[in-house]
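Title: Prediction job returns without error message
Component: structure pipeline
Severity: low
Priority: P3
Assignee: unassigned

Description:
Job completed but the reporter wants confirmation the result is attached to the right record. Sequence as submitted:
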Amino acid sequence: ETMQIAMENGYALWMGDALILLGWVQHRRGNSEQGLAMMDQGLGIFSAIGRVSGLPGTLNIKVEILIALGKFEEARALLDERWALERSTNQNFHRSVAYLMEAELVLASSSKPIDKETATRAEEFYQLSIADAKKRGARSFELRTVLRLLDLVRGTDREREVLSQLRELYSSFTEGFDVPLLQRAAVALKE
């Protein structure tokens, strides 16, 4: 509906936003190539109108898609661009997600099985993500990262510590237990 209104009235900003959100949804539904194409259209609109507000967060989404598609060099270059944009505009609200994407890129682009050095490097990024989310009171971002960290440390001596961290964070929520992220946390705590 947003795209329809934007097209009918020439609202380029809304059109860009709609394409980016639809691209993200397509990716989440398993259509990452189509999602990437939509993201690129939306970002093209933003570039044409000179929009930079919110762009670091949007670039995080594109990085997620690139990682899913195995386009690691593009993801690395885009993360570098995203960090530079954050520094030049001081738009740092989605920094915790950028750290999460750094960890995901480290893991996805490494050989399998994950060696200790790679796991340590990824965990460092996860910890930066968690610290930034805590500082901002962004509990859903924090929860997303703690769950990914738990995936990383499963079967190691760090698992108990991360489960404790997850338990404490999960208990701070008072609503939204039907949201997939909280459902995943509940399952992880029962395992």
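Comment from assignee: result matches the submitted record. The chain has a mean pLDDT of 94.
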